[in-house]
Amino acid sequence: MTFVQWNCRGLKNKKIWLKIPPFSFSEFWIFQETFFKHEDHFFCSSKTLFYLDRQDQPGGGLITGIPKTASGRIIPTIFSHNANQEILAVEIFYKGLNFIIINLYAPQGFNIESAKQFFDSFSVPVFIFGDFNLHHPLWGSDKSSPLSNDFVEWLQNSSFVLLNSSNTTYATHTGSPSLLNLSICSASISHGVDCYVSDSNFESDHCPVIITWSKLEHISKKMKTIDWNRTMSQSANVLTTETNLNVLTRKISEVIRDNTKIITLPANNYLP
Predict the structure, then answer these.
(1) What residue ranges do the domains of the chain occupy?
(2) Which terminal Cβ of the chain has fewer Cβ within 10 Å, N or C?
């Protein structure tokens, strides 16, 4: 399945882009800085949209979109949503999977201290997508801050993995690039998750990040088994009655073949 996270810097005049890739083929949308008020909410035929709007001042706003065939609910949080930190957490049930998407925007830099207990509290896989506005050498910056140092310390001691740490996602009007939009997931699923950065910003100053999660399908696997007790007993009889090497080799091969069978294992999530 595919996720796209994007700081759209205002979505009202950019909704046309949602009809083309990577937005059109992504099951999940995670958008920051929508600039939406409640009256700006819109209908999408393929998605159920969850909103967090900034009502008292301009800017900000989050949207998390999930397929119509999925079910989801907003997870209540104790955060005081303000202009400095917005968090929208949605629990999702889709194709037999249960996981959580956390969407966040922190224009002054994300403060992990207020959120680490919340992030660490889940027993199901978690994706954390957002515009963290943090700079750190771990993702290619030549500078850091107390907030980014605290965040990296938490990340390195947590059960989460940073997925994108190289390609920049943001460019100022002067062209100076940086990586502000981070994609994070639970370490337990990171082996099946990959991501890349779009080469277009779709009229924003942030490029979308596309994340894929390849969950192993429920498949049947076959395993070859040998009855070693019967094989050893019958082979011993051959060895005591036959001296011709060619005949001996043939008869031993026949014993192994006759005592070998293939069984089908029950459907499950098997490693490749």
Answers:
(1) 2-216, 224-265
(2) C
What is the structure's pLDDT at 272?
Answer: 44
pLDDT digit string, tens, across residues 47-58: 999 999 987 777
Range in 195-199, 238-242, 261-265 the model is least confident about = 261-265
The CA-atom distances, in angstroms, between 214 and each of 67, 95, 123 are 17, 13, 20
For the segment 135-154, the average pLDDT, to the nearest whole number, is 95
Q: What is the CATH number of domain 2-216?
A: 3.60.10.10
For 209-233, write each residue's pLDDT tens digit: 999 999 754 444 566 677 778 888 8
Name the burial class of residue 12, with classes exposed (0-12), middle (13-18) and buried (19+) by CB atoms within 10 angstroms of its CB.
exposed
CA distance 163 to 105: 18
Question: How far is it, in rounded angstroms, from Cα 227 to Cα 256?
Answer: 9
According to DSSP, the residues that pair with 126 across neighbouring strands are 100
> What's the Rg (C-alpha) of the chain?
27
